[in-house]
Design goal:
Structural class: alpha/beta
Number of strands: 11
Helix content: 40-55%
Length: 493
Amino acid sequence: MAAVPAEREPPPRHAQANPRLRVQLAAASTKRRHFLRALRRVAVLGAVDALVLIAARSALVLAREAWWTSPVAATVFPSGFMGGWTSVAAGLVGMAFVGAYASEERWTSPATVFKGVGLGAGLAMWQSLESLGIPWTVTRWLLVSLLLGSALAGVRRVLRTAVLQWGGKYASDRVIFVGDPRGKVEQKAAKAVLQRPGMHSLGWLSEEGGAHDYLGHPSAVWEVLCEKGTDTVVLCGNLPRALFDTVVEAAAVAGCRVLSVRDRGTLMASQPRALNGGRTRMLELTFPAARAGQDVVKRAFDLLTTMLAAVLLAPAMILISIWIMLDSSGPVLFVQERVGRAGRTFRMLKFRTMRQGADSEKSELAHMNHTGDPRLFKIPDDPRVTRAGAFLRRWSLDELPQLLNVVRGDMSLVGPRPFFETDLAAYDDHHFLRLAVKPGVTGLWQVKGRSSIVDFEEVVRLDREYVENWSLGLDLRILFATLPAVLSRTGAY
C-alpha cells in the first residue's frame, strides 16, 4: 500500500515506533551493503586487471621467442623490461589512483583506463630515464600505454556488457525515484539509472499520484524508507526546497546513496561529485560505501585513543574514586539511562557528583532550571552537588568513566551529548537527526560553551552541523579544542 502524507503528530514515546529512528537503525546494514558491493567491485576488477597484465607479460615473452617478432620485440622491449611483479603492482596502483575501480561509469571509461595504465607504466619505467634516455623511455611508455590500455579497456567493455546482459537477474541495488514519473526529464533520468549494472526500481515518490508504481508523496519518505529497505534514492525533478532537503536528509540518514538530476542541495555531502548517465548529468550527494569505511575508522580511532587515555588517566581516576567515597556516602559511579544512536537506550557512567538520591529531587527543583527547557536541565549552584562533585564538574572530570561507554560501543569520543528517553516525546522532526550517530563524551556543544548555551534549538543546530559534516578531521579538531574549553571553565557547573 502506498504511503500517504499525514498531519504531523507528536513523535511516539517508544523509540522504535518512530520512522526516523527505525530508518537510523537500518542505516548500518544499508551502508554495509554498499560497502560490500564496493569491495566486490574492487576485488573483481583488480583480479581482471592483474590477469590482463600478467597475460601481457606472457605475450611479451612469447613475442621475444617467436622468429617473426623476435628482432623487433627484443629491440623495443628487451629481456627484463617490465619484468617481475613490480610492473603488475605499478599498473594496479596507477588504475586505483585515477579511480578506475570507482562505481558506475568510472570503471568502464576508456579515458580513465588509459590514464591509469599511463600512470602505472610511468611508475614502472621512470628509473630507465637515466639508463636509456628520454627518447627511448618515452617511446616505450607510449607503446605500453597504448597496447595495455587498449587491452584493459576492451576487457572491461566485455565485462560491462556481460554484467548488463546477465546481471539483471541478480540486481541488488534497490532504487526509489522522486519526481513526476510522467515527466520527460524524470523518465530520462530513470532510464539512465536503470541502465547501470545491478539497479532495480522499487517505484516513485511523487507529488502526482496515479502511477502504477506509486509509493507515496515525498513527504512520506521516512515511512517509505522504513518499508522498502532502499539502497539508492534518485531525485529526478523539481521539488520545493524544504521537501527536497527532507528527502535528501531522510535518504542520507538511512545510509542510502543519493543522486540528483538538479545541481541543488548538498545536505550531508561534503564533496558532491558529478556523474554522467549517458547524456543525463547527475550529482551524487552521498557516498554510503565511503561512510561505512569511515565508521570503521572512527570506531578504531575511538578504541585506540580511549585505551591510551584510560592507561594515562587510571591513577587520577583511582584518586577521584577515593575522594568521592571520603566526601559523601553513596556509590562512586552514577549510572543513568540515556538515549544513544537511533533511539537505543544505554547506561551512561559518570563519577557521582551529587548526594545520594539527588535524581529523585529533580521535580522539586524544576523551578530553578535556568534554561526553562526540561530537555536542558541546568541549575547554577545546584544544592544537590557535593564538595567533590563541584570540583569534578568544574573541570569536567566527572565525565571520565564514559571512556568505558566508548569501549563498550555505546558512545564515541566525539558526538552529540546523550539525552533522556522521556525527551523524545517533545522532539520535533528536525531534532531526530542528532540521533543518527553515536553520542559523544565531547562535541561541538561542549567546545562552544557547554552549559552557557541554554537554547535547545542551538544545541540541536550544533549537533546537526556535526552530523552533516562529520569526518575524522572534524573529530580531531573537536578533541583538540576540548582541553582549552575545559580549562576556560566556560559554562561548567
